[in-house]
User: Which sequence fits this backbone?
């Protein structure tokens, strides 16, 4: 499973999604907007996304923290 998380510095929800992955022992690639990818390139790539974090799993846009946690539970990646 290929998980990419787009984050921004100081974002509480970004820290929470990384903590969720850490606790579940899930590996991911992180891109920090304005450091690893410009804001302009992020907007071009995800024109309908305006919040962080933004998670992409196996090339599919999942969404933010809540959507990702729901995806993990529904797909039995983590147990609640």
Assistant:
């Amino acid at each position: 499973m290929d998980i990419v998380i787009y984050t921004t510095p100081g974002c509480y929800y970004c820290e929470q999604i990384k903590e969720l992955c850490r606790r579940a022992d899930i590996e991911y690639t992180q891109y920090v907007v304005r450091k690893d990818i410009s804001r302009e390139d992020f907007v071009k790539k995800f024109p309908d996304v305006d919040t962080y974090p933004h998670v992409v799993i196996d090339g599919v846009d999942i969404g933010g923290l809540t959507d990702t946690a729901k995806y993990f539970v529904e797909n039995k990646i983590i147990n609640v």
